[in-house]
Amino acid sequence: MMKKFIMAPGPTAIPAEVLAEASMPIPHHRTPGFQAMFKAASEGLQLFFRTKNPVITFASVGTGSMEAAVANLTSPGEKVLVASSGWFGKRWNDICKVYSVQTDYYECEWGQAVDPAEVEKRLKANPEIKLVFTTLNETATGNLNDVQSLAKVAHAAGALIVVDAVSGLGAAPCETDGWGLDVVVSGSQKGFMIPPGLSFTSVNPAATEKNKIAKNPRFYFSYEKALKKLTEEKMPDTPFTPAISLVIQLKKALELIHQEGMENVWKRHAGLAKATRAGVEALGLKLYAPKSPSPAVTSVISPEGIDSGLINKAYRDTYGISIAGGQGPAKGKIFRIGHLGYVDGSDTILAIARLEMILHKLGKPVPLGAGVKAVQQVLLEENL
Ligand code: PMP
Predict the structure, then answer these.
(1) Per-residue pLDDT tens for 107-166?
(2) Could you give the maximum distance between any two Cα atoms of the chain, in Å?
(3) In terms of Cα–Cα distance, which of 115, 170, 171 is closest to 298?
(4) Residue owning the nearest CA to atom 2 of ligand 1
(5) How far apart are CA 191 and CA 155, in angstroms?
């Protein structure tokens, strides 16, 4: 028997109470019972996004909401700025190309954060740009971007900012209204603690105005249709059949999150990230994004001479633990330990204890317990 653990930066572990919701017979979606649940879930999302504006729920993965943002906000031939710090940042660029949108593509060095001064410089050089697409938490590198500062420079140049917070929301503070983030997109299999299949988009009034003049095509992913059903009916609704079971799970998961409180959820993620970093550094390993580390996932450079895929494989095949490997230029070089969503200090202790054993098995022995001790010290300090 091998017990399975999911410690990736998505899909993430799901609490038992949330799993249980999906085992119930599904209600029809055009019933008062389900509509009340959808209303509660939509209100819970607004608290999670820290916005008073509507948050659209699409039945799709996170990339669906990214594509929806491009389709709903741009016109063919329009030029936008994409500010990327890795694999998922580049996805904005790829989607823009499909929609005939020109991009000024700025990618900082992997492991670094997007530099607001560089964004400012590029916006000054391209005054026609009215949209900046960026990423809160770059999952591929494990770096957090300062979207508050990026929003400031975008707005100062008369542009809107669209943030991919697929893996960042719930882990890192993200004040959608407080920082003036015009559109924020996210996905269910991350900080929301439910399975993949729902994506979410907050749209502020400035983005709604941009949507009205944007000419790229959309049908299912139309903001107009979704916002009309969400805000103009007696009860919030969706234009097409919602993913009923997932919405019911979402409502439950958001109840758990709001019982804990957003500030406490952020603190827990920050503490677990700090403990994970302390653990790997105590083993002599180096972080891939040490200057702007993510609270959702810690990227670690594989020891000299070891393909990081071997560490990933050992976690999975020997100990039943799914972590994540490197993507793109980081393939084979880094491994990524998630601490996102339904996680606590015991998960971090497990991840680092097993890492010590894996390094032994791969011929890079470390003093057993050195990483775990560093983790425990941080967990005690952080009361986790
Ligand atoms: N953006 C980020 C930052 C992500 O981490 C991911 C998923 N790992 C995505 C976008 C894409 O999400 P999905 O796989 O749900 O389409």
Answers:
(1) 999 999 999 999 999 999 999 999 999 999 999 999 999 999 999 999 999 999 999 999
(2) 64
(3) 171
(4) 166
(5) 28
